[in-house]
Description:
- By secondary structure, the protein is of the alpha+beta class.
- The chain has helices spanning 18-62, 125-160, 166-198, 392-399; strands spanning 65-66, 68-69, 72-75, 79-95, 100-105, 112-113, 118-123, 201-203, 208-213, 220-221, 231-248, 260-264, 273-285, 290-298, 309-315, 321-326, 330-333, 336-343, 346-351, 353-357, 361-366, 373-375, 389-390.
- Helix 2 runs antiparallel to helix 3 (166-198).
Amino acid sequence: MTTPSNENPTAVQPGPPKHGLSKTIWVGLAVIVIVLLVVIAYGVMSRAAAERALEKQTTAAAVPTVDVVHPSPSKLSDAIALPGNTQAYTDTPIYARTSGYLKKWYFDIGARVKKGQLMAEIETPELDQQLQVAEADLKSSEANLNLANTTSERYQNLLKSNSVSKQETDQAMSDAAAKQAAVEASNANVRRLKQLQSFENVYAPFDGIVTARRIDIGSLIAAGQNTTPQELFHLAAIGQIRVYVSVPEVYSTSIVDGGEATLTLDEYPGQKFEGKITRNSNAIDPGTRTLNVEVDVANPKGLLLPGAYVFVHFKVPDHVETLSLPSNTLLFRSQGLQVGVVRDGKAVLVPVTISRDMGAIVEIGTGVTASDNVIVDPSDSLATGQSVHISDTSKSGDAQ
Length: 400
């Protein structure tokens, strides 16, 4: 027998209380809000960290990385080679002294001439006529002088017998003296014109080589104070050659007059020309800090030509020490020659002087020490106080 249940199977079961559901919702919302705040805070912090990292990277990138070298001490060799240009021992243009037309020339460029050789002839028709007139005037003056002398002698003889007055005699003697002066003036004019006429022939003033001929047959030649001088020839004596060399100040005390020097030329490989230090300027050029030295070289065969580029080798005492740097460390500024030196992470522009330029390497006279970090290939914008970073390559090189 089944016991009937008091419970209604179709009856609705009672749910949880309403206040419990509300509490669950609020907890969920709080969790969501907290998660959102955490996400937002994380995003803000991540962005700030990224901005700080970017700022740090930007600042680091703004500091240029440079390679540096230390000036290396070096001992100057007992010989130096300096560039120079050869010059003819005597070099002069030859001008006409009289006006006219060129009749003939006898030497062209490259010709060797001896002192006194006839180089050209000038026709001077106007001068010839002037000379003829002057000679005629001289003859007239001489004739007048002869007459005046005869008259003076006669008056002096007549004065002895009181046949003429003293006044007339003095006048005759004065007239003779005036005529004598006129003769001397005419004679001087004739000598002057003859001297000018002698310049019709142009002679070589010294032994040399004709390096230029600037006239030709029939050329009009004007000479005189009111005309522009016209060069006929250019003559150079190359039996002995001069070479002027700018010697750096550091070697100036080693250059002594009478000392020996040797010349070398690219066109004569392996051949040396012996020379002698003739003189020097005895003053340092403040612009270049060099001493101007003249070296004379005998050139009997004419192998050395004026204007040639040569190297002059001097022997100097082997006792001077200096510092050397690569030439790509130099900065050419309006303030003068400078190098960039790294000190306490900052660039400092230091003025320097060069005692010797060897192309890729220069010897520094003043400005740096052996412990300085000198910047290689400095930028044109490098300025004192600018922050720089020494490259790891340079540091590892120093460690080695």
